[in-house]
Design a protein that fits this description.
This protein has 300 residues and is of the alpha/beta class. Helix content is 33%, strand content 10%. The radius of gyration is 21 Å and the shape is globular.
Length: 300
């Protein structure tokens, strides 16, 4: 049917769980990770791989080959590539775009070599496979070929774009939006690097912030979406802006487009898994697909 299956891959860090994970697999704190604080990610409470070790590279590369061979998948979206590229893992670090931030003692050459090996192996096993890098730093050459001295990814995930949209929605009234700023933000990317653009990310769609539609409709999302009544100015304007945001992102943001589930019809609420912060509730642990198919509502 012409469809490709791409899975989210986490080779940047691993669970800190000792009971059923690989942490302290041989009884030490440096079986697959670095020893001491260097092997621990304080922001994620997870262990960090030591890419200098032959066993680690073999473990991770064989994992790639296994998915390609056993499940016949067509590619990977590499999670948290920033953490692999730098010794500081991006923790508390704000990237401004200067080249001194990318190349220096903070750069993890072993991590970069691993990513080059991974892309080489993937494209050798499956020549048509797609690899996508999730990197917040804007590392140069990330999506250039290995032959050109790059790291070999096919696409970069345009993480700045959904952050730009939510910041704009939060801070700037829509009548004051600058088209020049929006177009520059959507088209500002490295030469010859293909970008996956998207308008709404998991930060709004999954982990508890307001979704884009919630920002646009506010409280009227609960009682102003009935087609049988005249839409309010906020609902009418919100529907139009939601469509235009997606259209301009799709048109200018890159060479491909990612849709987070529900964004295509303006899903009102986020997905939140049962946890201590919500009293282990399953209330938000679903997508309300019925809204899209309800002909009386403006979501369809």
């Amino acid at each position: 049917m012409g469809l490709k299956i791409i899975i989210d891959l986490v080779h940047s860090h691993a669970s800190n769980n000792v009971i059923d994970g690989i942490n302290k697999f041989d009884g030490t704190d440096h079986s697959f990770s670095h020893a001491g604080d260097r092997g621990y990610h304080s922001g994620w409470d997870s262990m960090l791989f030591d890419y200098t070790k032959y066993e680690v590279k073999r473990f991770l590369l064989s994992n790639l080959a296994w998915f390609l061979d056993e499940y016949k998948i067509d590619g990977f979206r590499f999670d948290a590539v920033t953490s692999i590229l730098y010794h500081h893992h991006g923790i508390g670090y704000s990237f401004s775009g200067g080249y001194s931030e990318y190349f220096g003692l903070q750069t993890d050459l072993d991590g970069i070599i691993y990513l080059m090996l991974a892309n080489t192996l993937i494209h050798k096993i499956r020549p048509g496979a797609i690899t996508i890098a999730e990197d917040v730093s804007g590392f140069p050459t990330l999506c250039r070929t290995i032959r050109d001295g790059g790291i070999g990814f096919d696409y970069r995930l345009g993480m700045f774009l959904p952050d730009m949209w939510i910041k704009t929605l939060k801070e700037v009234p829509d009548e004051n939006w600058s088209m020049g700023h929006l177009v520059h933000s959507l088209t500002n990317r490295r030469w010859k690097e293909k970008v996956v653009s998207y308008a709404e990310s998991h930060d709004q769609a999954i982990v508890g912030d307001k979704t884009m539609s919630m920002r646009l409709f506010e409280e009227e999302i609960y009682h102003g979406m009935d087609r049988r009544s005249q839409p309010s100015l906020m609902v009418g304007r919100g529907v139009a802006l939601h469509k235009m945001i997606r259209l301009i992102t799709f048109s200018l943001g890159g060479e491909s487009y990612l849709n987070f589930m529900g964004n295509e019809f303006g899903h009102p609420e986020w997905i939140d898994f049962p946890r201590e912060g919500n009293n282990n509730s399953y209330h938000y642990c679903r997508r309300q697909w019925n809204l899209k198919y309800n002909k009386d509502l403006r979501f369809g």
